Amino acid sequence: MTQGRGRVLLLNGPSSSGKSTVGVALQRLLPGPWFLVPVDSISGMRSTVKGEPSDEAAIADMLTRTRLGYHRAVAGLAAVGNDVIMDYPLSEAWRLEDLLDVLDGYDVTLIEVRCAPEELDRRERERGDRPAGLARSQTAVYDHGAFDITVDTTHESAEACAAAIVHALASVPSPKAFERLRHR
What we know:
The protein has 184 residues and is α/β, with parallel strands linked by helices. The protein has a single domain, classed as Rossmann fold (3-Layer(aba) Sandwich), CATH 3.40.50.300. Helix content is 46%, strand content 15%. It is built from eight helices and five strands.
């Protein structure tokens, strides 16, 4: 059986901006089945065993391998016709560069999920599972300067943002952000 490639919606924003919640809301609104694949779920699959790296360089290497695997897992799902929602901050330039390569030829819609810094701080404190200041430190998530759709979760609910995304998907101009970024 031959299946076309699935679509990819990449929800990009800092930690605590609402990417996961918007992703869940999108699953309820988009027609057909969609996989929501947050990078945190891939990281959560990794065991924590005695002897795990403890120095910063070894940890950074382990996290890079995890994220490279995440990119390829998303591509694998989409390669066989699955539609995928990525919940992933493009907080390091290499992440975008690798995704541009791995997802070459895929229909990727880049969605910026924005949130006011004060609200990010509040959500981060409420979550309690992230280092204080992480969300504000992820300013590089928008450095690439290209996007297809933007939503702001500061005052809008996840459901309202998801509805805005679904509405905007019908009119995303071509070439999409990933194609523009690939050719610059």
